[in-house]
Every structure is written in C-alpha cells, then in structure tokens.
Specification:
Layout (H helix, E strand, L loop, with lengths): L1 H16 L6 H21 L5 H8 L4 H11 L5 H10 L9 H10 L12 H4 L3 E4 L9 E4 L1 H7 L2
Antiparallel strand pairs: 1-2
C-alpha cells in the first residue's frame, strides 16, 4: 500500500510539472503505468487502496481527487512539496491554496464555486489551515477522514 501512496505522490508531482519541464508528459505516463500495476497487484491480493475506496464511496471527480492528492503530498515529505510547488512557480515547504489554484488554472480546470467550496473541503477530506507566518494563503492538509482512513 505504501508503494501506491508513493507512486500517487510521484504522479501528483508529475502533474504539477506538466508544461513546466521537458518530458513531463512521458514521466506522468510512466508513473501512472507503475501506479496502475501496483493497484492491480493489490487487487489480486483482494486489497483496496484506502484513498481510492474513499474516492469511490464519496463519488469524487478526478478534479476532486487531485485536490485530495495535493493535500496528501505533505504526508510524503517536505521534499515532495517543495518539488511540486517549484513547478507551480512559488517554491515552498507548504502546499498552499494558491498553488492548487495555479495548477487547476494551468490544467484548465474550472472551479465555479472556488476551491474553498470544493467538495473535498466540504466533506472534510481536505482541510485548509491558516499559518502565523503572515501569509494570507491557507495550507492544504489531509482532512480528518483521510487521516483516519490512512492511519495518520
């Protein structure tokens, strides 16, 4: 299961790199293939990846699931967050709402009600946390439901 989590993190970073790094499309394709193979191996062992179960049960769209994945990056290490945010033009050890907005805009994903009202926020799958660093831009972290499901 940790392999799928790591590969989903790699895939999320690869999505952030689209249009910013030569070969990002190929990198995304390779990581996606590896991730699907790991998920298939879990399925053969009759095990479901918890975040996918949650996504299916909650009927999340691909865009909603991407928003959850962005929040989960922090659990994979600061280096993953820094790498992803570097591709989004504002390198940071914290994945902020503005980073998500940049990525969604770059990918042409419309958020009619804004990311603050995105379904993962409403369903407590993603939490937005203010910081005391003087920056008025909340940090994305996995919500309580995700943390409990993943054992964090």
């Amino acid at each position: 299961m940790n392999t799928v989590l790591r590969l989903e993190g790699d895939r999320t970073v690869a999505i952030c790199a689209l249009g910013q790094e030569e070969g990002a499309d190929a990198r995304l394709s390779i990581v996606t293939s590896q991730m699907l193979a790991a998920i298939e191996a879990l399925g053969l062992a009759r095990v479901q990846y918890p975040l996918h179960m949650l996504a299916m049960a909650s009927e999340l769209t691909q865009e909603d699931y991407l928003f959850v994945q962005l929040a989960v990056l922090a659990k994979l290490g600061t280096d993953r967050v820094i790498e992803a945010t570097r591709y989004l033009g504002a390198e940071s050890p914290l994945f902020r709402l503005s980073h998500a907005a940049t990525l969604f805009q770059r990918l042409g994903i419309e958020t009619p009600d804004g990311l603050l009202r995105a379904r993962p926020c409403q369903d407590n799958l993603v939490s937005l946390i203010g910081t005391d660093d003087g920056v008025d831009d909340p940090v994305l972290v996995p919500g309580l439901a995700v943390c409990e499901l993943m054992g964090w």
